[in-house]
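Weekly modeling sync, notes
Attendees: S.R. (lead), two postdocs, one rotation student

Agenda item 3: backlog of single-chain predictions. S.R. asked that every request posted to the team notebook include the full sequence so nobody has to chase files. The rotation student volunteered to paste the first one in as an example of the format we agreed on. Action items at the bottom.

Example entry:
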Amino acid sequence: MTTTDTLSALEAEASALDDADPLRGHRDAFVGADTSLVYFDGNSLGRPPRASVERLATFATEEWGGRLIRGWDESWMELPFAIGDTIGRAVIGAAPGQTVVGDSTTVLLYKLVRAAFDAQQAADPARVEIVVDRDNFPTDRYLVDGIARERGGRVRWVDVDLSAGVTAQALRAAVGPQTAVVVLSQVAYRSGYLADAPTLTRIAHDAGALVVWDLCHSAGSVPVRADEWDFDLAVGCTYKYLNGGPGSPAFAYVATRHQDALAQPIQGWMGTADVFAMGPEYRPADGMRRFLSGTPPIVGMLAMQDTLALIEEAGIDAIRAKSVALTDFAVRVADSLLAPLGVVVASPRDAAARGGHVTLSHPAMRAVTARLWAQDVIPDYRDPGGLRIGLSPLSTSFAETLAGLRAVREAVAELG
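Predicted structure, as returned to the notebook:
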């Protein structure tokens, strides 16, 4: 088959897949989806929903501008918990009262890992290790290293295949009587590897450890069953598949059974039992309020509500099915158009072990990424030689996916 024949067949396949896509109507809900720009970075920053443009404008003129400080009493004070419960219900499979929005991913991870480590240490001083893999997201690794030094503990590093992630066998070999906390990502940021979350959680629990799950690259793209899978704690960002906007605040999940036993380390006024008592000493609130610190970033919470409504309407299982179809298609296109140029798929080929993005490896990918950005084709790059194709199920079409990968082929042919 000639290249022309291959392209024609792929174009026909993309068209048929788009026609059959039950979620195709949701693409129109996003700003810019009707342009020729190809967006392969929804796993880093999602497109803004059109409804959020109106929501933000209305908030500025009517709520902030019209109600002013009265807004705190009328709704803002409870917004972190209301949106948190929506995330729990629609995205991570958590019953009410276990999820809250506030602070950055880094700050929330610090709070939960440190709180879990301190609780484990108090119960058993022999538990001095925090387990994390060497290819986890840099923030996770840096935080674990800092907390271990801060609290007199140590890090137990897990070596992993860069094209995959933490396996049951690898974790089982790393945990034991000295393990206090295990920090894991459900979807690996580099390869897109989808961890077996229930199995890994069970392995950690069997060793007496608590687990902090990083859901940044999974929330809104793959199903999470936090309660069913017996999660202890989790953190996820909202600017990727939840389309909350640049720097929108993260969410934290703490299982009800742990809430009263954990002392979060950044004691601020918003986490107290009586926020406006302004008392002489810190008294933590019951429930998830105790995991707040300072004033909630209300403006940063607004936009994610529109994508959360879309996720509830579509259903996370349908979104996962679209994600699998998109990444399967991307792998087939890569095999047809890019493999002859030496490009390697550096993500799991088994959809059951792959999250919402595909990494394509080639020595020229850094230069390829720069070339593509100048052409309004927007992937991102991760060392060594990895071009990430982030396919957001609600806003990405199959035709867009093919158009972007054709551009990748042309750039690799010129620069490789």
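Discussion: group reviewed the output briefly. The mean pLDDT is 96.
Action items: rotation student to repeat for the remaining queue; S.R. to check formatting next week.
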